[in-house]
Design brief:
By secondary structure, the chain is mainly alpha-helical. It has 20 helices and no strands.
Length: about 375
């Protein structure tokens, strides 16, 4: 039995206890604000001071060693992120504390979103660590980019489109995939019909389980036509060695959420149509492009915030309909299983640099062993 997941399970349990305290004091804003601060601080210490955890740390560390203000290399094609990292190196931070600063930026942006769009200060964090481990651990640039645009949704809601598009430009400077967010003004106006959702999701189920890769040729043509860094970004998702997502607890969860969404889409379409449609797009990308884990990780996760939002809506609605204790036990049992499975690989063996020394060669060897399997 692997114990790699244990620290993450303990974090999950701690956050769950905070969530229960929050529910008991939902009208006490003093306690809720204290809980908000505690969640932020614990999350920051846990992930902000992590060692060589995950996979992408290896590439980020190499890039950090090569970067400087004197030279702009091909790896610096996302100037916002490059400028941030170059500045941190200029002031003398080593790689670990660059991760600390990046985590702090991510948390500040995520905290603003949670405070704006959610009733709970804790539940979105629980869902984030349980369902999106790759985002939290590995996708440093992507996560900042997503959070920049999600924080700019308020501009879109107020009709200030110029500010919103400027935010997209800033997000693109952290990760090129943010260009996809230019569809959000259109997505804000869309109202899907029930039959459309039924067809979208059911065809998606067939594509998923048939492992039908219909898009490789199309994306190859697009990448060759565009060229440059966008070509490299697309190629990462269509390489022959890309692994597919198969039958798992994750796909069962998403099918369940998809059918719930079909059932109550009309009820929620006036609450926040944009976030609801982000959830629809997230599910569609997951179902239709499952033959490439890289594509899912980079593109489905662009719309993850809508999925987190809808997940909390499901919890809130069905807690009232079925009874809090029953739905809470069911959902949290499921989330703890997802947490255990997600962080079980040796790549996620947890170390915190405040308490333990990290040895580069040991973690490099561990990473190589994982990919040689």
């Amino acid at each position: 039995m692997s114990y790699n997941s244990l620290p993450y399970i303990l974090l999950f349990i701690f956050l769950t206890l905070l969530f229960l305290i929050e529910l008991r004091n939902k009208n006490n804003y003093t306690i809720r604000n204290r809980i908000r601060l505690v969640v932020f601080s614990v999350f920051f210490v846990f992930f902000g001071f992590r060692g060589y955890v995950g996979s992408d740390w290896f590439n980020y560390k190499i890039s950090y060693e090569l970067t400087s203000w004197d030279d702009w290399l091909t790896i610096d094609y996302e100037p916002g992120f490059a400028a941030l990292v170059k500045t941190l190196k200029l002031i003398g931070l080593d790689y670990f504390y660059v991760v600390t600063v990046i985590t702090a930026i991510q948390l500040i942006l995520f905290d603003r979103l949670v405070n704006r769009y959610f009733d709970s200060n804790v539940l979105p964090y629980i869902i984030l660590i349980s369902l999106f481990p790759i985002v939290v651990i590995d996708l440093q640039r992507n996560f900042i980019s997503i959070l920049i645009v999600m924080n700019a949704l308020s501009y879109l809601e107020k009709g200030r489109k110029l500010n919103f598009y400027l935010a997209i430009i800033l997000a693109i400077s952290f990760h090129l995939s943010a260009i996809v967010f230019i569809i959000l003004p259109w997505l804000k106006r869309v109202r899907f019909k029930k039959l459309t959702l039924i067809l979208l999701f059911n065809i998606g189920f067939i594509v998923y389980f048939a492992q039908f890769n219909f898009y490789q040729g199309i994306l190859s043509w697009i990448s060759a036509s565009i060229g440059g860094p966008f070509e490299e970004l697309i190629i990462q998702a269509i390489r022959d060695e890309e692994e597919a997502y198969g039958l798992s607890i994750g796909i069962i969860e998403k099918i369940f959420i998809a059918y719930l969404l079909i059932g109550n889409y009309n009820k929620l379409s006036n609450v926040n149509p944009l976030l609801l449609n982000l959830c629809v797009i997230y599910l569609c990308v997951y179902f239709y492009f499952s033959t490439s884990q890289s594509f899912i990780n980079r593109f489905a996760n662009l719309f993850m915030f809508g999925y987190i939002w809808y997940y909390t809506i499901v919890f809130k609605y069905y807690s009232k309909q079925i009874g809090f204790s029953l739905i809470a036990i069911f959902m949290f049992l499921f989330l703890v299983i997802r947490t255990y499975l997600a962080y079980q690989p040796s790549l996620y063996y947890y170390k915190n640099i405040l308490f333990e020394e990290e040895i580069y060669l040991e973690r490099k060897y561990l990473r190589e062993q994982h990919y040689d399997k």
